[in-house]
Specification:
327 residues; alpha/beta; Metallo-beta-lactamase, Chain A; eight-stranded mixed sheet; seven-stranded mixed sheet; disordered N terminus
Length: 327
């Protein structure tokens, strides 16, 4: 293990709540480490506010080591009010957040910041992101139609009290308990990016297949291994896990959750090699969400049935350290 690998401290506990995702299922059963929202003893449908799902992703990350604990927001969903609505339903207070991490600049991971920050008020909230997250992007399909993906509105968010922290390389947060990978090294021969993705650079639209601002959040739970959280996983699930290992010097991957971007005709051909590599890596838990796609999710559920856990808004992944002398 090199010197850089010692920067990520092992924690006693990580608790990740899915605040926004593409789907919700309130009847999913809990397991030892995946906790589903509890229904009240007496429920009358429609009496209480319900959690919302949308095409976006956001997660609340709580970490604890000894007497130190912290709470972070990872991504913010696609609608202005979806994030703060679900935070209210789940009784999460924005004022308790220490910082915000953006996995990349696409609007389905950033727009909810506006609604949340307006609730929070001007507080100098730090938001960590890669500089390329501010690029204007679009997808140009083979038939010529386009989908624009606006960048975060820097001026508006700064007016709402954000303090942007831009970093291309790895960042260690909360006294070294959380690692944000920064730009992910690409090492596989099959995760080649998004060929129809473009960015406006120096006033011209240019190919932007690698989406360099894609980054993941990594926590090392003592005795269990790495918990890796992605937003869209544009860098590729396997590239991301390999890079997390490289940065930390920790080989064991305990959990992978978030978007794995395996949906649609461009990415479905790499479902096979991705699943094969995940079988070899053998995480204890895989909770794929958002842009993973139904074909990839079904394949993961079929080939890694013991590890697969459906992602659903309000679900929590709770991983606790192995007690001393155990394992």
């Amino acid at each position: 293990m090199d010197a850089a690998a010692t920067n990520l401290k092992a924690v006693d506990r990580v608790d990740i709540t899915i605040l926004l995702d593409n789907s919700i299922d309130i009847f999913l059963p809990s397991t030892e480490e995946v906790k589903r929202p509890q229904l009240a003893d007496t429920v009358t449908w429609g009496e209480r506010k319900s959690l919302l799902a949308e095409h976006g992703y956001a997660a609340l990350v709580r970490v604890a080591a000894g007497e130190r604990s912290a709470m972070l927001l990872f991504d913010a969903g696609i609608s202005t009010h979806g994030l703060i609505h679900n935070m209210d339903v789940l009784e999460v207070k924005p004022a308790d957040l220490q910082s915000i991490i953006l996995s990349h600049g696409h609007i389905d991971h950033t727009q909810g910041l506006v609604g949340m920050l307006r609730r929070l008020g001007r507080r100098g909230m730090p938001v960590l992101l890669h500089p390329d997250a501010f690029l204007k992007r679009k997808v140009i399909f083979p038939d010529g139609h386009e989908i624009n993906t606006p960048a975060p509105d820097r001026r508006l968010l700064e007016q709402e009290g954000v303090e942007f922290v831009e970093a291309r390389g790895p960042s260690y947060l909360i006294e070294g308990m959380v690692l944000v990978t920064g730009q992910i090294h690409r090492s596989t021969d099959f995760e080649r990016g998004f060929p129809i993705h473009y960015a406006e650079i120096d006033g011209a639209w240019r190919p932007d297949p690698l989406i360099h601002d894609d980054q993941a959040l990594v926590v090392n739970v003592r005795g269990k291994g790495l918990v890796v959280l992605t937003g869209c996983g544009h860098a590729g699930a396997i590239n991301t896990l390999r890079y997390a290992r490289e940065l930390t010097g920790v080989e064991r991957i305990h959990a992978l959750l978030g978007g794995l971007h395996l949906t649609g005709p461009i990415f479905e051909p790499i479902i096979g090699p991705t699943v094969a590599e995940l079988r070899r890596i053998a995480p204890a838990i895989i909770m794929p969400g958002h842009c993973t796609g139904w074909k990839a999710i079904h394949r993961l559920a079929q080939e890694l049935p013991e590890a697969y856990a459906p992602s659903s808004v309000g679900s929590r992944l709770v991983v606790e350290a192995v007690a001393a002398g155990v394992g």
